[in-house]
Design a protein that fits this description.
Helix content is 54%, strand content 0%. The chain contains seven helices and no strands.
Amino acid sequence: MEEWFHDSNDKNEVKQARNEIAKVLRMLQQLFPRPSKTNGYNIPKMHGITKMQDYIKLFGSGINFYGGPGELAHKQFIKIPGQKTQCRVGEFAKQTALQYYHMLVSSYAAKECRISKANTKQIDFMEPKGDIERRKDDEVIISLTGK
């Protein structure tokens, strides 16, 4: 069925496919029952598949309206930062944007710390090692700023 959705099909064949799509959906429900309180199997949502025939008639092959990349971006930019908001309608967009900004800054800071840590080595400050001598008053400053 997935191959058929993404293939170039005759318009009349698409118009007459409703019963065949329904048969496949019933078979999916019988062969892969979804227990309650679980995510079930990794198969498309039933109501989404029932709309495929209409979408194919409107937009052509199913590959023309595949939403995988958009859904991935939606998770990264909205769902994940949105879970860290108060979910108030009037503040949601602003808080989500702010949380996404915080995620970017934190990610950048963590990357810089990893780079900085990789370029340093620990030396016992009481014992001089070669030409390097460390004293107790040595100070390391890491500054993270941005717009």
